[in-house]
Automatic annotation (TrEMBL):
It catalyses: a (3R)-hydroxyacyl-[ACP] + NADP(+) = a 3-oxoacyl-[ACP] + NADPH + H(+). InterPro entries: 3oxo_ACP_reduc, KR_dom, NAD(P)-bd_dom_sf, Sc_DH/Rdtase_CS, SDR, SDR_fam. Residues 7-186 form the Ketoreductase domain. This is 3-oxoacyl-[acyl-carrier-protein] reductase. GO terms for biological process: fatty acid biosynthetic process. Its EC number is 1.1.1.100. Signal peptide: none annotated. It is an enzyme of class 1 (oxidoreductase). The keyword GTP-binding does not apply. The active site is at Y155 (proton acceptor). It comes from Candidatus Merdivivens faecigallinarum. Keywords: Fatty acid biosynthesis, Fatty acid metabolism, Lipid biosynthesis, Lipid metabolism, NADP, Oxidoreductase. SMART domains: PKS_KR. Belongs to the short-chain dehydrogenases/reductases (SDR) family.
Length: 247
């Protein structure tokens, strides 16, 4: 089924992990997909591997924490396809540390990418979506944004902040044909989670009722639903996709 036929989608942080799984799924569902990332080499590799699977995905080098670059990137997508229907604000980083040891740089770097980056991308895309009277914006939050997590003051602040932004933008844009929702993934098997200490990972797995870490595709399918026309009455929601970890 082509649930995103002729839709134009931008996926930030789309060359690895959840973003890459999403780009491949969206392209299979008929969308014209552009992925953003900071590494040209990684972007080119991803586009080549997608092409090997018969999928035509575009890559643009855009750092979501640079507003001028984000605006130029959005214009490039608009010029390429004549519209932008879907924005997946997926790019995110961690710089974990307890409050005692966390540096101002670690705090700021995570705020700049995870929170300000979402603001920049949403601001830039809203110009096109408001003019078209249609849009789907989906933001990557996290279970830790709902419940907190030891050693992640910076990251949790951004993921909780995203939930507040999502609710506010849902109110602002709802009447304009644009929905804004968030997904709160549990612990998903990507590079980000692989960087966690082994004993922390084992402890996390033990807490998940379905008995496993999530796959990137588990989140990609949630993004797909919220990005589809079928979700037109879902607005301002945060969908937990965590194997039941937080029930
Ligand atoms: P990942 O590290 O595997 O991939 C993130 C991608 O974003 C990478 O390609 C990275 O280069 C890119 N990126 C980082 N900063 C960027 C920037 N400023 N501009 C453009 N691209 C940038 O991460 P992931 O695990 O796939 O996570 C995707 C999203 O889901 C993140 O927002 C993350 O916080 C969130 N999330 C992940 C998990 C998990 O368990 N993996 C859990 C909850 C939430």
């Amino acid at each position: 089924m082509n649930r995103l036929e002729n839709k134009v989608a931008v996926i930030t942080g789309g060359t690895a992990g959840i973003g890459a799984a999403t780009a491949l799924l969206f392209a299979r569902e008929g969308a014209k997909v552009t992925v953003w990332g900071r590494s040209e080499k990684r972007g080119e590799e991803f586009v080549r591997s997608a092409a090997g699977q018969g999928l035509d995905i575009a890559y643009d080098k855009v750092d979501t924490s640079d507003f001028e670059g984000v605006k130029a990137g959005m214009k490039k997508v608009y010029d390429r396809y004549g519209k932008i229907d879907i924005l997946i604000n997926n790019a995110g980083i961690t710089r974990d540390s307890t409050m005692k040891k966390m540096t101002v740089e670690q705090w700021q770097e995570v705020i700049d990418v995870n929170l300000t980056g979402v603001f920049y991308c949403t601001k830039a895309v809203s110009e096109y979506m408001l003019a078209a009277g249609y849009g789907r914006i989906v933001n990557a939050s996290s279970v830790v944004g709902l419940y907190g997590n030891f050693g992640q003051t910076n990251y949790v602040a951004t993921k909780a902040g995203i939930i507040g932004m999502t609710k506010t933008l849902a109110r602002e844009f709802g009447r304009k044909g644009i929905t804004v929702n968030a997904v709160a993934p549990g612990f998903i098997a990507t590079d980000m989670v692989a960087a966690m200490p082994e004993e922390v990972l084992a402890g996390m797995k033990a807490k998940v009722p379905v008995g496993r870490l999530g796959d990137p595709e588990d989140i990609a399918y949630a993004y797909l639903y919220l990005a589809s026309d079928e979700a037109s009455y879902v607005n301002g929601a945060t969908l937990s996709v965590d194997g039941g970890m937080t029930v």
